[in-house]
């Protein structure tokens, strides 16, 4: 007689093979793929729209330069429209940029000009305004009896200063964080429910009594968790591949380069976060006596998953930094910080270790409740009851 | 050999199984009888390790039973259930694999057993597509596919059509003939009486009778029926026996000893003709009613 230490593999294989033949699962996966493709398609379509940028200017000369740059963009067929916004002084230009009334500001700087942005540089604005300024400077210098090329070009350089410099494109980081969060949220919810249902199915049919007499319940639990984690991770990888493929096809390689480190960290965090949640979902299933009960026993879990999601994507600053070290919460919060360039190299590593320890504790704790609740077939239990009985 | 040694289970203040001891010897078919709530299912769940005992222990071949031992037990729970949406052969093979049977052997045995129960052509159907009787047959296959060294069957005959009952009986006989102990519970007392080597009667969590069927039947008080040629009322005048019932020419009496039969016959013949004097052997159902009353 073989030992029972690897029976979980049989359980995991069954979970996967049953799921892969489940029509609901296949349809929902296909639907998600369609959504990803549609999202990329929509983004691609929107990218075709003309972008309007407001440029704050302190005087008429600057205003003329903006108008000239707008004409150049138009000539170059760039999808960019530049509009001058009159300001009282150089100081108020800065104010308009920092409060968002204007996307950028053009002010005098010695013999030349200076472009002011808020937190990120817009390449198109810099290109066309730069050309306009250069052309203007060259023309004026030539008119003033241009002697050398160096003199001709004097004042045509355009330094681009940021008031609040930021290494990466903030928008892309934000979107990347939301996408990761969404993937985890969907997987945690869909597969979580699937785990709970698969547990209650066995409990309701009493097949769990046959299984429990054949193998240790821990093996059953491990098999279920691993089987569903493999499925969830597989689905996320599939969606990511389609997403990455979409970005490549739509020529968004810059964005991809920016998202790469985030994706790299997201995978291990996803794996560990999902394992911990999967164990708790198994408890949700064990607490119910019929599949109808899962609706109510799962309420605390659906709430938790939603809090993890919104906590991960909506918080900023210190709150986000704290959450990025809390097990489960770190799944979304830490990769989001990595994407935004806010995390030092060691931070995700430490958070991952904490998440690992947290997941282990949750697994042990969940196993006890699962064991207690699974054999209690007479009525539905609450988390608290299962905990109390498990402690007895 | 399976031995239950002073097995007890309490649920809160309620004692569901109270100090239950009995044996299921190798090759023995033991019927476990008792009303609803008598504690049969609780006892069987403790034997299978699905439920912890509050006190006492289950012994297998003279040692406390282990999880490894139980992996070789076949079990059919009271409330039937397999995976409704999984194909029949696939799930019985899966259960066999959980018991340590190789994937190849599991499929082979599953196919053979399904064939034996006339379900060969349904092997790829989902369980829920089968009739209830056929689902029961699959349940039997699931219990025996791993070739268990001990069978514990909770109400294996309930819900079976007569054909399936015969199949089941034949299968159980096969197991006992190879030395496998079989413990099964049932409400169908006639079936238990016909099949079992031993009968254990449980009432309110306690064993109230345990023995070979014939022994049990004769363990009760010795009663005789006397039918005479005329009114049998005179038996009331005999001081050395208890009269249970007298009606016309028939009397039912309880004797203190077997030798009193001759004495009764002599008395009867002295008063006229005797049509019948016979020992009343109770059925298991009668015994059951008596011990559980």
TrEMBL record, chain A:
Membrane topology listed for this record: Multi-pass membrane protein
UniProt keyword Transmembrane helix, yes or no: yes
Record keywords, A-Z: Membrane, Transmembrane, Transmembrane helix
A GO molecular-function annotation: ABC-type transporter activity
Source organism of this protein record: Flexivirga endophytica
Compartment(s): Membrane
The protein, known as: ABC-2 type transporter transmembrane domain-containing protein
GO CC entries: membrane
Membrane-spanning residues: 24-46, 178-200, 221-245, 265-289, 301-323, 343-363
InterPro entries (UniProt xref): ABC2_TM (IPR013525)
The ABC-2 type transporter transmembrane domain, residue ranges: 25-357
Main location: membrane
TrEMBL record, chain B:
UniProt-annotated location(s): Cell membrane
Start and end residues of each ABC transporter domain: 2-229
A Pfam family this chain is assigned to: DrrA1-3_C
Presence of keyword Transit peptide: no
Primary localization: membrane
GO cellular component: plasma membrane
A GO BP entry: response to antibiotic
Entry membrane topology: Peripheral membrane protein
InterPro entries from the UniProt entry: AAA+_ATPase, ABC_transporter-like_ATP-bd, ABC_transporter-like_CS, ABC_transporter_ATP-binding, DrrA1/2-like_C, P-loop_NTPase
GO MF annotation: an example: ATP hydrolysis activity
Annotated keywords: Antibiotic resistance, ATP-binding, Nucleotide-binding, Transport
Keyword Zinc-finger attributed: no
Family membership noted in the UniProt record: Belongs to the ABC transporter superfamily.
Family matches, as PANTHER family: ABC TRANSPORTER ATP-BINDING PROTEIN (PTHR42711), ABC TRANSPORTER ATP-BINDING PROTEIN NATA (PTHR42711:SF5)
Protein name: ABC transporter ATP-binding protein
Organism: Flexivirga endophytica
